[in-house]
Amino acid sequence: MRTICKFLLKLLGWTAMDGPVEEDKAIILGVPHTSAWDFLISYLFYTSVGGKAYIMIKKEFFVGPLSPLLKALGGVPVDRKKGAAITLQVIHAMNSAKKMHLAIAPEGTRKATTRWKTGFHTIARACNVPVYLGYFDWKTKRVGRGVRFELTDDAREDLKRIREHYAAMDMEGRHKGMYTA
Asked: Can you tell me the distance from the alpha carbon of 31 to that of 81, in angstroms, rounded to the nearest whole number?
C-alpha cells in the first residue's frame, strides 16, 4: 500500500516534505482544510511515508460494508450529536490505543471560518501527546506533518501562535478564498 500511495501522490503532483511522527501517539493538525480532497492527499502522504493516521468520522457512516473500510483507512467513529462529548470520546480512543497519530482539522469545517476549534488542545493535554503542525498546500503541492508545537496551559494563546505559524507559510487551500489563517 505504501508504494501505491507514493506513486499516486507523485502522479497527482504532490511532494512529501517529511516522514511520519516518531512518537507512538500524537495529534497532527491538517491545515488548510477547504475540501474533502484534503483527506485523500493527507492519506496518500502519510501512508506513503510509512505512517498510519486516524481521523474522526461521524458514526453514522460506519454501517454495512463501509464500516470495515473506514476503520482500515483510520476512521474513528464519533457521535457528533453529543457536542463536547466528542472530545471525551477521542480522549478515550487515544488513551485506549497503543499507537495513534490523530489528524484533526482545527478549522472544524471546509467552509471559510475565522474561528478555529481548540478540541485538539484539550485532547493533547489530556492524553499528554505532542501536536504537529501538519499542512497540505495546494499552491505548491507540498504536504507534511510539519513541526512539533509545544503546548502551554493557555489554549487561546497557543492557537494564536499556531495561526501565526500557518499564516507565515502563505498557503492556499484547494478552494481559494476559503482559508484564513
From this structure: 25
